[in-house]
Amino acid sequence: MLSEQVIVETAPRLVGRHGADALTVRRPGAAPGAGPSALYRYFHGTDDLLPAVADELIGRAQQGCRPTGEWRSDLCEPGLRVRASYQAHPQAALPAAHRTTGRNNETRAVEAVLGVLRSAGFPDREAVRIHHAFVDQALAFAALDSAALALSASAQAADLQVWQHRYGRLDADTHPHVAATVRLPADDMRLSGCPFALEPLLDAAAARLPGPAAGG
Question: Residue 204's pLDDT is what?
Answer without folding.
Answer: 95
